[in-house]
């Protein structure tokens, strides 16, 4: 089973507009709402790829109920913990004329210690050997920066695949807990390791992370693809040049695509190439999702693998 914990979900509203003019009345051409936040972006990708998934996080109020309904409609198993505070709304503006993207994220709700304990207990009771457990995105107010790391430590006795996609101290503490895989982008990786000032230092730091107990590391590099490494190999995946329409959620789409392919093949390199194709496909689409009827396997075959190191 795939279990995705996105501690700080949101209702994401994506608006398309010609140009966003500050201080003026702006007219939106199209608005589409998604059950969002990084964890639900991962879950939505998995469902698009035909993989069963359960979503965990904190939901409250009218927005929380709307997200639960969206999960139900998408076939995502709703395992969220009910909270007293209201779930956030995030707005994304896509400007047609400027080819520019603006994201306005509300602060997350306040989550009590009791609500945190309830979520953790639910997740730990559900997890079985062989499961993937994804810990993705930010945490809301009241939730400590060791939240993901403590969950990884609590799962040490089980044979599970823990994957972390987070930033700052959340990512730093999670790395110290030795997850099976981390997938930051290059900016998030440099937040934790500011000594990474060149490609050679990046590779050296990745080797150190692997030596210290993380089994697999993928650092996404935007249009340049990604750098992936484990104890067996280190390689770049270079993606084909495409017109990027909306790159938002491409990193989350990468994680969903990776899990879908790894669960089917158990092959790290094949899964990274397929995940890269999923991320590119998302960037080619106006809304944050993989377009229908796109040949993802063909797109994966068009990626180039280069040995690193």
Characterise this structure.
This protein has helices at 38-48, 61-74, 113-126, 147-154, 168-176, 186-192, 199-211, 250-265, 268-283, 296-301, and strands at residues 2-5, 10-17, 30-36, 53-56, 58-59, 77-78, 81-82, 88-95, 100-105, 132-136, 161-165, 181-182, 216-220, 226-230, 234-238, 304-307. With 309 residues, it is an alpha/beta fold. The chain has one domain (2-307): Ribokinase (UDP-N-acetylmuramoyl-L-alanine:D-glutamate ligase). It has a 10-stranded mixed sheet, with helices on both faces. Strands 3-2-8-9 form a 4-stranded mixed sheet. Helix 1 (38-48) crosses helix 8. The model has no long low-confidence stretch (mean pLDDT 95).
State the gist of this model.
The chain is an alpha/beta fold and 309 residues long.
How are the secondary structure elements laid out?
Elements: E1 2-5, E2 10-17, E3 30-36, H1 38-48, E4 53-56, E5 58-59, H2 61-74, E6 77-78, E7 81-82, E8 88-95, E9 100-105, H3 113-126, E10 132-136, H4 147-154, E11 161-165, H5 168-176, E12 181-182, H6 186-192, H7 199-211, E13 216-220, E14 226-230, E15 234-238, H8 250-265, H9 268-283, H10 296-301, E16 304-307
Parallel strand pairs: 1-4, 1-10, 2-8, 4-6, 5-7, 10-11, 11-12, 12-13
Antiparallel strand pairs: 2-3, 8-9, 13-14, 14-15, 15-16
Helix pairs in contact: 1-8, 4-5, 5-6, 8-9
């Amino acid at each position: 089973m795939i279990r995705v914990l996105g501690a700080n979900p949101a209702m994401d509203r994506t608006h398309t507009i010609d140009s966003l003019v500050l201080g003026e009345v702006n007219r939106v051409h199209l608005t589409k709402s998604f059950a969002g936040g990084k964890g639900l972006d991962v879950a939505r990708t998995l469902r698009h790829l035909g993989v069963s998934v359960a979503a965990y996080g904190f939901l409250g109020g009218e927005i929380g109920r709307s997200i639960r309904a969206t999960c139900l409609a998408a076939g995502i198993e709703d395992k969220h913990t009910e909270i007293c505070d209201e779930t956030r709304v995030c707005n994304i503006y896509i400007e047609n004329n400027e080819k520019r993207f603006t994201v306005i994220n509300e602060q997350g709700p306040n989550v009590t210690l009791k609500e945190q304990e309830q979520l953790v207990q639910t997740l730990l009771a559900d997890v079985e050997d062989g499961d993937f457990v994804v810990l993705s995105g930010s945490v809301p107010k009241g939730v400590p920066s060791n939240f993901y790391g403590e969950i990884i430590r609590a799962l040490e006795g089980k044979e599970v695949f823990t994957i972390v996609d987070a930033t700052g101290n959340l990512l730093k503490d999670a790395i110290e807990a030795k997850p099976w895989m981390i997938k930051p982008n290059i900016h998030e990786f440099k937040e934790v390791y500011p000594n990474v000032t060149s490609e050679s230092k990046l590779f050296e730091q990745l080797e150190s992370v692997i030596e210290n107990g993380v089994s697999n590391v993928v650092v996404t590099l935007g249009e340049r693809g990604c750098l992936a490494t484990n104890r067996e190999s280190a390689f770049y995946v270079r993606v084909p040049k495409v017109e990027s329409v909306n790159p938002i959620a491409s990193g989350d789409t990468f994680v969903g695509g990776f899990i879908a392919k790894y669960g089917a093949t158990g092959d790290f390199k094949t899964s990274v190439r397929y995940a890269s194709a999923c991320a590119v496909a998302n960037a080619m689409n106006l809304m944050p999702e993989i377009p229908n009827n796109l040949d993802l396997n063909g797109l994966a075959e068009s990626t180039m693998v280069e040995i690193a190191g």
